[in-house]
Structure formats: C-alpha cells, structure tokens
Amino acid sequence: MSRLRTHTRTRIHTADQPAAITASDVPQLLRLLHLASPALPIGAFHFSQGLEFAVECGWVRDEASALEWIDGIASGSLATLDLPVLERLRAAWRRDDGLAIRSWNAFLIASRETEELRAEDRHLGSALLRVLVELELTTELFPLDAPNTPSGVAHASAFAFACARWNVEPAACSQTYAWAWVENQVLAAVKLVPLGQSAALRMLHALCARIPLLVERAHKLADSDIGISTALCAVASGRHETQYSRLFRS
Fold it and tell me: Which spans in the chain are helix H?
C-alpha cells in the first residue's frame, strides 16, 4: 500500500532568525495537553451527548446522579467502543494502513445510535483535522474539501492520526482522549444541573481515578467484543434532537 503523505514540520520565527522544529522536538506531554485542552477550537463544548435531556427529565438532578450518569457512559461506551477503536486507529495510522483506517472510522460512526451523535462525531473529527492543518499536519485520506464522503471522519480517527504522527504512546493516547471526554461531560453537567466548581472538581477527581481502568479494559477487548451498552444515553440523545429548549447543539 502506498504511503499516506503527511507533513509534520512546524516553523517558529524568533526575533533573530527562523528556527525549524520537528514533532519529535516537542515533549509528548505538551502535545497531549494541546490535544486535550478545552481551548482547542473544535467545538466540543457545543455537545452534551444526551445529558441535557437527562437533566430535563430528572434522570440527572445533582452531583451524585451526574457522576453516575457520566461514569455509566464511560463504562458502557467509552471503554468498550471509543477507546478500543482509537487504539486500533492509532496502530493503523502508524502502519499507514488506509484500508484499516477507513474501516474502523466507518465502524465507529455507524455505531453512533442517533443522528445527533453521528453529527457530533463528524463535526469534531473534521474540526480537529482543520486544527492539525494549522500545525502543518495533513493527510489525504480524509480531504477537508470533500465533506460528503460516505462516513466522514470521526473524532477518534483525527485524534489517533495526531498521536501516531507525534509518536505518542498508545496508553497516553487513550488516557488523554478519555480525559478530554470526561472533562467535557463534567463541564456540561456544571451548566445544566447546575453544579458548583467544587462539585466539578470532586467529580473529575473520581473519574480521573477510573480512566486507567477504562483504558486497561479497552486494551483487552477483542475486535468481536467492541460495542456499546448505553441504551438510556441513546434515548436521551434521540429525545434531545427535538427538545424544545436547549443549550447544546442537536
């Protein structure tokens, strides 16, 4: 299979002279902090993944129920679908295996149970690829000028692409992706329930301790075991698509 063309060189101009650095010159931790930052302009804060309807109908009403809701989705979807597919996507990007990348990307988007969740995944994926272009990291596998591809690009596909090109270790890639998801869900709960900052800190502390276990569980899954078991989240997302008053995108 032909190599997928990418460009990973970044130029920094100083007052004295331009200096060229490569991705390997930047510590992995800083790369990961960049990818996980809420300031990353991909619009993750626009989406609640059904949490807004869960609050509207009373399923989530306080700190305890919000923590239970987020932890449940992390256990029944993030650890059993997103993270194992992310791991496979990262490995495929390292091999430049375009067929495997497209296959897992399509599988991930097809696994989203509502139009809202599929639209969110495509939005975050394409937005992240545009951010990576600004960092001079590009791929021809998912051209940004052709948005009407059969499945689009999933967020995990773009995330795995960046981690593969920056030589981020598999566990660090998965942990960072999980942290970004958890943080976004907690921030959504803060707005919707609503919750105070102290409650958010307690929730993040508890969920942070769960992330290594979720990543370990994802790593052990065989291809045939990948899937989701979050029916109530799917109901909430589907109902949110027609919710009369909402803060988050549908």
Answer: 28-36, 51-56, 63-73, 83-95, 98-110, 115-134, 155-165, 170-192, 197-220, 231-240
Position 249 scores a pLDDT of 56
Residue 80 lies in a domain: yes
Q: Which domain holds residue 235?
A: 9-35+48-240
CA separation (Å) from 165 to 67, 71, 92, 225? 34, 31, 11, 28
pLDDT digits (tens, 9 = 90+) for 47-100: 788 888 899 999 999 999 999 999 999 999 999 999 999 999 999 999 999 999
Please report whether residue 1 resides in a domain.
Answer: no
Q: Distance between CA 213 and CA 208 in Å, rounded?
A: 10
Whole-structure pTM value: 0.87
Helices 98-110 & 83-95 angle (0-180, nearest 10)? 160
Residue 2, pLDDT > 60, answer: no
Residue 74 inside a domain? The answer is: yes
CATH number at residue 186: 1.10.4190.10
CA nearest neighbour of 110 among 174, 154, 44, 78: 154
Q: Is 9 helix (H, G, I), strand (E, B) or coil?
A: strand
Residue 98 falls within a domain, yes or no?
A: yes
d(CA 126, CA 148): 12
- Residues 210 and 207: their CA atoms lie apart, in Å, by 5
Q: How many domains does the chain have?
A: 1
